[in-house]
Structure formats: structure tokens, C-alpha cells
Hints:
Blueprint: H1 3-31, H2 43-64, E1 72-80, E2 86-93, H3 98-111, H4 119-124, E3 128-136
Antiparallel strand pairs: 1-2, 1-3
Helix pairs in contact: 2-3
Amino acid sequence: MNHGLRALLAVLLLAAIAGLGFVAWPILKEQQAEPGVTTVDNRPAYVTRVREKIQKQTEATLATLPKPAGTGSLVVQIEVGPDGALLSAKATEPSGKPTLDELALRIVRESAPFEPFPPDARKTTRVMEINSEFVFK
């Protein structure tokens, strides 16, 4: 291979690398935190607030029931969208008592909508999946 062709290939390779850097730079800058500022994952606090809202709705609903619906426990998987909308709710570990399972699902539906995701979480999270345990005594 002659020197002229090698030089041309080297220049083309450098131009390609520079072009990729030019395209990637804004993405990298967007992902970097400001100097001296640490990012905090505020999703756990959001999940806590969702669970607190469900707990308040559970207490309000149970206070209106004329008699206990029974005893048992179950796990409900809840999916929340960035705007706080309830996307889905299903009993992933049913109690074995359909009335309790339906009561828990009704409580979750009545708790919605939830607050929107925090701004930082919206950048990286499309759906929050929350597993919530219901224990009826």
C-alpha cells in the first residue's frame, strides 16, 4: 500500500472518530451531573409514597366494611406510569380467597392516580413496578 493511500485512510479514520465524538458529546454531557452535585435515586422514596397512599386507602376502605372480609395475605404487583397513572395491578401471590384478592385490587384501583414520577426518575424510568403485600387480619 502506498504512502498516499495510507495517509488518506488515516485522515478518513480520524474524521469518522471525530464525527462520532461530535454526535456523542451532547449525550455524554446530558448524562453528567453538574460539578459538586451528587445525583440521588429518588425512586425508593416515590415507592414509599405510593405504598403510603395505598395504606391510607386500605384503612378508609376497611372502615366502611360492615364485617371483616376474612383473613389472609397476598402480594399485588402494581405498575405505575410516569404521570402517576395505574397501568396494571394483579395478584402475583394470591391469598387463596377470591374476595380478599378482589378487595386488595379494588383498593389499589381506588388509590390511583398516584403522583407523577420525580423529574430525575422520568429521564430513566418508563414504568415503576411495585410489589405490595396486603395482610388482612
